[in-house]
Amino acid sequence: MSSDKKYDFIIAGTGCAGLSLAMQLKRSSVKFSKVLLIDKDLKNKNDRTWCFWTKEKNNWFDEIIFKRWDKFSFKSNSFEKEITLNPYSYLMVKGIDFYAFCLNELRADSRFEILTDEIKEINTKDTVAVLKTKDQTYSCDYLFNSAFRVLNKKPKHINYVQHFKGWLIETETDSFNAECPVFMDFSVEQYNDCRFIYVIPYSKTRALIEYTGFSKENLKDELYDGELKNYIENKLNLTGYKIIETEKGDIPMVESDFINPFGDRVVNIGTAGGSSKPSTGYTFYFIQKNTKHIVNQLENGSQKLVSPKRKKRFLLYDKILLEVLDKKEISAKNVFTALFRKNKIKHLLAFLNEESSITEDLMIMNSVSKKHFIKASIKKLIN
Ligand SMILES: Cc1cc2nc3c(=O)[nH]c(=O)nc-3n(C[C@H](O)[C@H](O)[C@H](O)COP(=O)(O)OP(=O)(O)OC[C@H]3O[C@@H](n4cnc5c(N)ncnc54)[C@H](O)[C@@H]3O)c2cc1C
User: Fold this and answer.
1) C-beta of 119 in contact with ligand 1 (< 6 A)
2) pLDDT tens sequence across 55-65
3) Is 271 in the pocket of ligand 1 (CB under 6 A)?
4) Residue 61 to residue 109: CA distance in whole angstroms
5) Is the shortest distance between the CB of 105 and ligand 1 below 6 Å?
């Protein structure tokens, strides 16, 4: 094994969080001379599509926003509404555009070195962080980790996943409202579970249709395929469509904490750093906020970097919703329908982005079944 190579920072994992941090570091006033980015994957495939809502008008990734909508619709059997999102926009970024944009910019900056290799180990040794691959050891002042996710599971914790499979389909004639994605369509069979469909229109003839569930485990592949086919052919009444791409994945929705056993020179980011919201799985927006927070700490010359902490009340709300979903005494479809039917969208979106005031939180809570939510709250507070 060759001797240590020393960097200011190492970014372990160049997915959403690693690249977001690197791009914000590049644009910051932080003084550094060498950053190593390392991933086992080349990041040259369109392996995911990110959708999220924001009020921000200026984002560092504005150039690669593929779609920006000012409304979306919510559907269930009893309620259907097209909702104007002002002051929010619903945005879509394609994985491949994001990776290519970031990697091109970072490659053009001699301070960043990008390496494709498998990381075997990360840890802290005295006052430096150390990363080992099969043949090489690298060290740095701070290492940002999104490659290793360590979940501290406890028996009482409710740990779910948002699991999904999507087909990007193309039709010969105009079939989709390109101006209005379907955020959640709960009018599908629920199977005593939480199941819904996203319809993300790329154009009038192209859309990503995603069958999604919130539950303890993913479904078998053929179940997603059957539900997608059923929805496209019997709800959207489309025939003769072509499947252009598929997207499959899951996102942790967990009550357990992602922990850092790697020592104080390692800072976890992305899902590994707790950026996936436990009650929804939405992550992209929180990654942007959290990586910005880390860059701000560096700009302010902080001696000890820390992963941003979530406000305790939002942690509690997420635990309560997971408890309600898990108990199944009230259907998830009814909970989400009440949230969208009874609240102003700007309050609900602020609440889900953890930016609402306590008064807004109380209004949101008042809109769902008190009996079930109070019971779940008492249980979580006692635990
Ligand atoms: C298909 C899909 C769609 C999603 N859609 C949305 C969405 O619409 N909105 C939203 O908010 N969130 C979404 N998410 C959730 C979340 O935004 C993404 O998972 C996001 O990519 C998480 O970023 P991350 O950096 O934490 O992890 P990743 O992007 O997965 O990056 C981790 C990186 O670490 C690398 N790595 C792992 N182990 C090693 C190793 N041993 N050595 C070297 N490299 C390693 C991996 O190759 C990977 O590149 C989606 C997730 C998936 C899977």
Assistant:
1) yes
2) 999 999 999 99
3) yes
4) 17
5) no
